[in-house]
Design a protein that fits this description.
Layout (H helix, E strand, L loop, with lengths): L22 H12 L3 H34 L4 H50 L2 H6 L2 H43 L1 H8 L2 H38 L1 H6 L3 H53 L5 H42 L4
Helix pairs in contact: 1-10, 2-3, 2-5, 2-10, 3-5, 3-10, 5-6, 5-7, 5-10, 7-9, 7-10, 9-10
Length: 341
Amino acid sequence: MGNPMMPGRAGRSNSAPVKAKNAKGTVRRLWDYLRQQRKGLLLVFLLTLLGTAFNLITPYLLGTVAFDRYILTGNYAGLAQLCVWLLALYVVASLTSWVQAYIMTAVSQQTVFQIRRDLFKHLHDLPLRFFDTHSSGDLMSRSTNDIENVTTTLNQSVVQIMTSALTLVGTLTIMLVLNIWLTLVTLVTVPIMFWLTRLITRHTRRYFGAQQKELGGLNGYIEETVSGQKVVKAYVQESRSLSEFNDINHRLLHASIRAQSWSGNIGPVMNLVNNISYALIALSGGWLFLQGMTSVGVIVSFLSYSKQFSRPINELANQFNLLQSAIAGAERVFEVLDERP
């Protein structure tokens, strides 16, 4: 531990929000590790494609086919047969989702295994001057907390991003085929969603970066203080050490509150926009039906597809929040890997 009469290195952290210095470069380097699991990723993509197809066809069957072909015509035998097919689709889709999640977990764990191995090996090759300017606690935080953030994001975000992108494209295509006017009504709220998403993620990226930085500083200060406890007691520095710890802890508290608050805003905001879109489609669909320009089944399908269309946008926005935290943590790991041995 350093001189107990002087503030520790970890205690001089800047509380201003920071963001990734090179987000694109960090994502590219993460992809370099991830693509080593090509077979697993390909299988995950194929399962995602299959599961998305099942989810896209069910609103069409529930609306256009069930209402227009069976319910309105009184063909209840056909309706019963359709229900059996729908049940089978739901079962297969659930099994596909389970297998997909299992494979993606293995892919993400293998990827993080490689990153952790490279980091630990590189630490043994670094010169002593590197450890003189970096606290052990901060290095431990990069090796554990930051890599754990990457693990969580790979487990959740990769599959979710693929599913959301495929669902978005597939839903838009089907809606255009069913009714172009209702599709245009659905698209009215899309620019608002993108603008709000961009506004929120711009703030979350900065604050998640600040959170990871302060967490590393806190871990570093704790490690230095605990390992040098005899020196602290010998110079009667307990009060000063506690005061410095409280300062760092408060900075971490404020950074975490800002990050989590901005991240939590996106759900309620998107729900509001989705409800507005749902109401517009219901009103427009009713008017088009009265004008003889659409059918009841198409309106029912469109109401389901409107939720499917907005849900991927919401999920992509939420995944961007997770990605900000993972990118901030991964960049801290790559900073160590970039140190010359």
